[in-house]
Write a structure and sequence with these properties.
The protein is mostly helical. Helices cover about 70% and strands about 0% of the residues.
């Protein structure tokens, strides 16, 4: 598994998330569209929560505030999430996680320890992120936003 491909894929996801969110207001991130069960705020937090799970799988360390996991995990309900949670903090965490995962991949690759199993775990998470990035893109359209750059 090529570390370059893994990091490039993660970087693509990161940049896409940032571009999709760049012009949204907090109210837009909290909006529910057409009975959509997820809002953008929850999706961003969920991606950060899942990256935290990936980091735990890879390094044994976690960076995402554990008190927020209940809101952004698989069973989290965005309708019950306190509106006071700072979703911009989740964006900062995503950037930190991108750096941490990239550093881990490069270190393991340089040591010849980036095996197929670890690569497959990362690819699974990247696919999960891509699904949710697609959701954000669709919700933007429902909110009347133009395509992100």
């Amino acid at each position: 598994m090529s570390s370059h491909i893994l990091i490039s894929s993660l970087e693509f996801n990161q940049k896409k998330i940032e571009s999709l969110l760049a012009d949204l207001t907090i109210d837009e991130t909290l909006a529910f569209t057409h009975d959509n069960i997820n809002n953008i705020h929850w999706i961003v937090g969920h991606i950060a929560s899942q990256r935290d799970t990936l980091l735990e799988d890879l390094t044994g360390e976690m960076t995402f505030p554990q008190e927020l996991k209940q809101y952004y995990g698989k069973a989290g309900d965005p309708r019950k999430m306190p509106k006071t949670i700072d979703w911009l903090k989740c964006l900062d965490i995503l950037k930190e996680q991108f750096n941490d995962i990239s550093a881990w991949v490069l270190e393991w690759d340089s040591q010849g320890r980036l095996d197929r199993e670890k690569g497959d775990v990362i690819v699974k998470y990247l696919s999960h992120e891509a699904y949710h990035i697609g959701q954000v893109s669709l919700i933007r359209k429902m909110l009347g936003k133009t395509a992100a750059k």
